[in-house]
Amino acid sequence: MNLVVWCVTGLLFAAGLAMTVLRRQLLAMLLGIELMVAAVNVALVHQACLLSDAQALAAVLLILAIAAAEAVVGLSLILRAFRSDRGIEAGGFTELHG
Amino acid sequence: MTPAQIPLEAWLLFAAPVSAILFGFFVMRPLAPEKTHWPILLSCVIVTIASFRLALPVLMTGQSFDKNIWQWAVAGDWGVAFGLRVDGPGMAVLTMVAFVGSLIHFYAASYMKGDPGFSRFFLVFHLFFLAMIGLLTSNNYVQLYLFWELVGLASYLLVGFWFHKESARKAALKAFLTNRVGDFGFLLALLFILSIFKTSHFNQIYFLVDKGFHLEALPVIGVLLLWAACAKSAQFPLYFWLPDAMEGPTPTSALMHAATMVTAGVFLLVRSWPLISAVEWLPHLIAAIGAFTAVGAALIACTKKDLKRILAYSTVSHLGLMMLALGLNQVGTAVFHLFTHGFFKATLFLCAGNIAHALHQSTANVDEVGGFRKAMPWTYACFLLAALSLAGVWPFAGFFSKDAILDAAWHHGGVYAFVGPLISTLSAFYIFRMFFLTFHGSRQEQKGLSAHPHEAGFGQVAPVLLLAIGALVVGPLRHGVTRLMFFGFQGLPTGWPGVSGTLNLPGEVFLPEFNWAVFALGTGMAALGAAGAYYLTMVDAGWDWRWRGGTVERVFESDFGWKKVVDAVVRGVVGFARFVGGVLDKTWWDGLIEGGASSARALSERLSFLSAGRLNDSLWWMAAGAALLLGRALR
Amino acid sequence: MSPLTSLWVLPLVGAAACLVVGRFGRTAARATALAFSVAHLALSLFVLKPFLASGGVGIVAVGGDRLAFGVSYLLAADGFSLSLIGLTAFLNLICILASWKLEVGSAYWANFLGLSSALCGVFLARDLFLFYVFWEATLIPMFFIIGLWGSSNRRHAAVKFFLFTFAGSVFMLLALLALVSAHHAATGIWTWDLHALIGTPMGAVGPWIFAGLLVGFGVKIPVVPLHTWLPDAHTEAPAAGSVMLAGVMLKMGLYGLIRVAFPLFPATAEAWAPWLAGLAALNAVYGALCAMAQTDLKRLIAYSSIAHLGFCLLGVLSRTSQGLTGGGLQMINHGLTTGALFLMVGFLYERSHKRGLSDFGGLAVRTPWLAFFFGFSTLASIGLPGLNGFVGEFMCLSGIAKSSVPLLAVPFFAVAGVIGVTLAAAYALPAYQAVFWAPEGEGSVSAHVPDLDAREKTILWVLSGLMLWIGLAPQAWLTLLEPSLRSLVR
User: Fold this and answer.
1) What ipTM is given for this predicted complex?
2) What is the pTM of this model?
3) Cβ within 8 Å, pair A97-B619
């Protein structure tokens, strides 16, 4: 694979990971997840073109659909959180503490 | 002999007391507690008649029997059976125990009247009686141990009879625990006997020892049995429970701690005589302990103020005499002294009981009595008879037994020849000191006459009178009692090593009948003692109060320091137990384990930051984990 | 259904029935419990009867095909295990009768019946996996009994009891797993059947397996370094719970030693016997010394249990017939005697909510029957001859004094045992005196203690009668125990 595409994909993925892990706001975490998905998509599309692999393209379409569904669920959860007293900060959810 | 051939009297020996106790507990106690003594007194009469009827054939013809009645416990090749043994030594002591015991039961019916625990007293008293009968008719060591402990239990319950008094509770505990310490020896000896001889029955052991088997184990077994006997028969070093046991009601002191229970130790040694005499040095040890105790206790008895305690130390001293006699190889003499001692000591105790009863107390002090001879003439007469018997004056019974011991000691020579007359002097001194102070004294320190005592009732005087007469007349029975000893070691050929020819007891050295020198010496020393007592109580009447209140008195109070030693040992053991139970177990060891548990919990609390519920931290961990797995996968 | 299976299924069914019937009220629940426990006792006696006649040598087995991993459903019984089952059923009935007036829900009765079932399973199992399952199953009802119906510190005591004994059993599980794999390595067969496993060549791992079993059983006996769960558990448990705990559960450890550990490792057992006997002697003396220092009645009796089981262990280790049979008999004796004592302390606690020695006094006058029975049981406990305690202790000590195992007959162990017997009076009698004979002090609660009622008196008469019977004529009981015990150690 092209070095440029690797770098771009890697950078996108890293940025998305950084956003997810480092940000406190739930919406930002969701965006980070979407970025990671996008990075994976790019890599898969490039792979499909390079190797003329139709399965990769099918995977991309599948991922796009699932990402959309996941965004819907995530956004509706964030909307619920926003409407309630808990807020949209990650600090509001600590039930899993030990 | 089948169980069916065992004579009826032997069955009655047990059946009467057992049924009396059961009937008394289940029927009389709930319905008519103040009449609990009726079935029990009846049982006493039956037992006395039965014991005499059993003893007569043994005496006349030597016909004794030893029969196993049932298998108690059998496991593999180990087994213990219980049975009945009617033989010379047993019958000799049993007749005395039954007769004296029955009279004391009758006495107690009057003495204990009105006490709220009357019913309980009689039931436990009779339980003791039953246990003593069982002890004397056991045919093996395990059964003897069973009744030995039962006797100790009865003693505990009776010494602690008035348990609301702290002194009584402490005394009961002291009595039981000291006897338990002695039983350490007995139990260990039992274990050794069973493992070495493979049987605990007297017959079989006598036979094996006679044949010379296992002689190397006998020293250890002998010393252990001696240790047990020292506890039960109140010899040094385990005698100190007996004076405190005077906290019990006077019938208890008379029966158990004078006539019967304390003689169980001597009886154990008599039963074990073939084993003990087979060890060369063991009789010497017994004699030494006996002599030492006899002299020490007699000295202390001269200084006591409480009437019952004088008699208690006197008992310790006379038990020492019995041990001395045993140690000098005079088994018959020892048992005969046991026999006569039962009579005169019981009389003395019951007289002390009458005096205390007259003062409406449980015991009396020389400060509270004085000049009682006019007010209590019967008690006075009985006391005098018994005192003369104790001092060993002819023709009283005590003379015959004591003279025989003095005789043996004289012949043995050495220090014992000196000890014998010394004991005569001291015995006469302390008993006549008690006599003069109680019945003749009229010092201003004594409040006796102002207490207006009155003679005890018939129920308390008649038994004492009978016992006192017994203390006078049973002297001639010496031949019979000594003869009975021959019929105790069935299974042994006559002519035990060391003695040949005449029909002799194992180890018994046959002495000529009457030694004038010893007679004169004994009677003379007794007269000296009595004269000394008269002088120091009647002539120089204040002496008894003058010498007190200094170091000398403190030395005597602490039994020449031995009581302090015992207290220190007890405190040490209790302190050690407190340390083990409190500090070692709870604080250190359990603390260690609980500390482990709480440090596990602390660790978990420390590490709980790892799962604090923060979302970002979880995501970090997820990312790290994923990276690792990816790294692994790509390798 | 084979009678052996029904011995452990019947109480379990009873437990379920109690829970169901409990919806209809408390009386219904306790009546159901009583009915099932009576039936269980009757059943166990019925199974026991042929053994009394034949001398207890026959073994009745229920076999089953192997399930998975070599585990199979195998039960077996002989005189020894049936006597322990009889003890379990009897004490269970006594516990239910003694708790009759308590205000407790149906879960209380269900737990007791469940405990009874698991205990019978332990004594019946021949397959070692089944043995382990039942072994652990006994912990669950006991945990609830202590934790829910105990006294003030019950939570801590229940958790401590569970974790401590569970930890010990983990060692046992490891040992059993190692054993089964060693057997597989040697013969190629996976089996957990005890009889098949006896005689497996084990090589170097043998002593480790034995050690693991020892830890597992030793925690339950309990052997002195591993005993600290016992005082807390006994003190905080309700009266009936202490009775079952002291009466039967402590015997599981010794049972495991006799049934599992010693037959599997005879040589190692003999080699280690002096060390184990040292621990047993330590039990006897240490337990007595600790008991002397206690001021809480229940704790005192708990420590005295440690001392008594030291004697049992001495007897069991001696490998003589009188020692083993004495140990077996002493297990039953201890169940009866300590059970009676705990029951009576329970009666005191129920009425006054106190169990300190200085909280009472003067009870001999206020409650003469309680004084009588308590004195009787105390005397049995300290080994007064004529009562049951003496027979067992005497036979155990006799066994150890005459043991053929090398080094064991050294008098040291017998002397230590006798010291233990001597000290027993030193802790028991002062306690009795403080509660019953001493006058009531300030703050004494004796005025709140009425005397025993008819139900309690009946229970205690039965127990005391048994103590006297075993003490005076133990032979009948010994014929039940002796043949099976002898065959286990030859």
Assistant:
1) 0.92
2) 0.88
3) no
